[in-house]
Write a structure and sequence with these properties.
Elements (H helix, E strand, L loop, with lengths): L22 E6 L13 H14 L6 E2 L6 E6 L2 E6 L7 H9 L7 E8 L7 E4 L9 H10 L5 E6 L8 H8 L5 H18 L5
Parallel strand pairs: 1-4, 1-5, 5-7
Antiparallel strand pairs: 2-3, 3-4, 6-7
Helix pairs in contact: 1-5, 2-3
């Protein structure tokens, strides 16, 4: 099964492999470049850091014809999906068409921003755990019809004020260079630890 307009991009996922299962890591966020490096796009920032660590900056994601997400096969058992073409609240409609093109037993991990964790912290949460009000995760849950996916929660910290307007402004603000450095070091290292056995 393949994306239209592309030459058998996922063929390797349907061929015999030494790995028992395929892992798909999906980063979710708002449309880029407008929202690049904003806190709400922490899942995309981390996905890019993982990609660069695994295969280098020169490897580029591929755009699915007519789709609002990009993908990159890393090897016969790992594929990355970058949901960067639509708003995070619509993540389910963005990623589900691509997920359905993968093996039924694919292990899905969604990288997303997390207000309840300080910057530099990363947690891997098992399927079925609380979505903690994250609208991007809720969208995927609604489209999938279940919570059968892991969540890679990327800490962005929380503003002192809990006022919804202030929180909304905060998640749409850009990371500072110093904060991006923390993501590239502490967050990436934590993510690699959490993903042992998956990648």
């Amino acid at each position: 099964m393949a994306f239209r307009g592309l030459s058998r991009p996922f063929r390797f996922l349907h061929e015999p492999s030494k790995r028992r299962l395929t892992t798909c890591i999906t980063g979710i966020g708002n449309p880029e470049p407008k929202y690049s490096n904003t806190r709400h796009n922490a899942g995309l920032v981390l996905l890019d850091l993982l990609k660069n660590h695994l295969v280098g900056e020169e490897r580029a994601y591929k755009r699915c014809t007519g789709g609002s997400a990009r993908y990159l096969p890393i090897n016969s058992g790992l594929v990355l999906i970058r949901a960067d073409g639509d708003f995070i609240n619509l993540s389910g409609k963005t990623v589900l068409p691509l997920w359905r093109k993968l093996q039924d037993k694919t292990v899905h991990i969604v990288a997303h921003d997390e207000l309840s964790l300080p910057l530099g912290k990363v947690q891997l949460r098992k399927p079925g755990r609380s979505l903690r009000g994250h609208n991007g995760l809720k969208s995927i849950y609604e489209q999938l019809g279940s919570g059968n996916f892991y969540r890679l929660a990327v800490g962005i910290g929380r503003p002192a004020e809990r006022d919804p307007a202030i929180v909304s402004e905060y998640v749409l603000s850009k990371f500072s260079p110093a904060e991006l450095d923390i993501l590239a070091s502490e967050s990436l290292n934590k993510a690699l630890e959490r993903l042992k056995g998956f990648i």
